[in-house]
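INFO worker-7 received task bundle
INFO bundle size: 2
INFO processing item 0
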Amino acid sequence: MKGILLKDLYIAKSGIIITLTSLFVLTFGLSFLLDVTAILMLAPAVSTAAVYISITNDASSKWNKNVITMPVTRAQIIGTKYILYILLSAVGIIVVLVSLGALSLMGITVTLYSMLFNAAIGISVALLAGGISLPCVYFFDAEKSQIVYMIAFVASTGIITVLVLLINIFIPVKNNILLAFYIVLAISFVWFAVSYKIAAYAYQKKDIT
């Protein structure tokens, strides 16, 4: 399983470097235009694009036919994609946090509240979108799954809106904004875990041709 994860990282290496460099530069560029911590809403989602690069490569190179002969279960094969997704999301957040730290030293105002708020939204969007799109890779072909990937990020924002409205029935969101979005974040993690189970089941039933 570790070897498969390293393979995915190697294949997507150039895309990962470009994405993370872009996030670093974008953080500095936006610091003079708006609340720079807003980039935390984009960082996790943008960073995960490399996962789909590895999935597309697997399909085009017929890797899926070879990996099932290796001493790993199909659930573990799927698990590497989910681990990679989480890993890249975390790296994206870290890169932006480092950038924000540098900006803070330069005198740019960066508040802990805004970082926590924007990070909660960004991670929730990434988890919800990933939970929708990753299983679709094993129901559809690579091209269609990439379309689902883009739609999933739009859908995730709608899901978050609905969740916030539901939470507001029980907790006044305006007075408990961070609490509300941390509840959304917790739900997003649960959905991501359920999504893994769905994807693993679908892959176990799929005929590899």
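INFO item 0 finished
INFO processing item 1
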Amino acid sequence: MKARRLLMLAVCAAGAWGLSAEVAVGAFPQTSREVVLDYLQNGVTVIFDAAGEDAIRSVRPLCDCMTPVVQGSRLVVQVDTSAFDRDVDKQLDVTFADGSHQRLTVQFRVPQLLRVSSRTLVWKQGTAPRPQVLRITLPKGSPIRELRRAELVGDAFDYEPAVVRAGREYTVTITPKSTDKPVLNRLQVVTDCDDFRARRVIFLQVKR
């Protein structure tokens, strides 16, 4: 009797939250996929299989990079990954024949062509202009063969690069010339790879 009451409470709670107490006719048993990309990979196909035949009514991708095709109870998604330069999640909303909905997620794991210890260095306005050290490295297996230089865009900071391993690892010591007022400059890392995913921009900011 107690178990029955608990079941009724669960059903009522589902209704109160606007959730269906029944499983969707064409529900996907697995609503997420993890995809590990290769270096500089430009595309991938991801497949989701629904539980029921011809159950999918419509699909709405939440990113222009995704092109879904419905094949009966199978959803085939072509994904343009050429703009992915870090780990990212992409989603699709699916509507089934019975009017129910599900959101599907693809978790992309993107290997880093190069690593920087921080993408933003911040100093607070009015504090001592202490130096901060940025580390730039090429991970093993990266198609980048050489770190060439780091270029400062702006004139509000001093920077001093130092070689740890020639072409493979550098440190850059960055110091604001003044913290009297807010300012934003950037440091650009230049490599031997022309692909935009090999670029890194580190923002240098004196923040109010």
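INFO item 1 finished
INFO post-check item 1: Residues 2-16 form the longest helix (15 residues).
INFO post-check item 1: The domain at 24-109 is CATH 2.60.40.10 (Immunoglobulin-like).
INFO worker-7 idle
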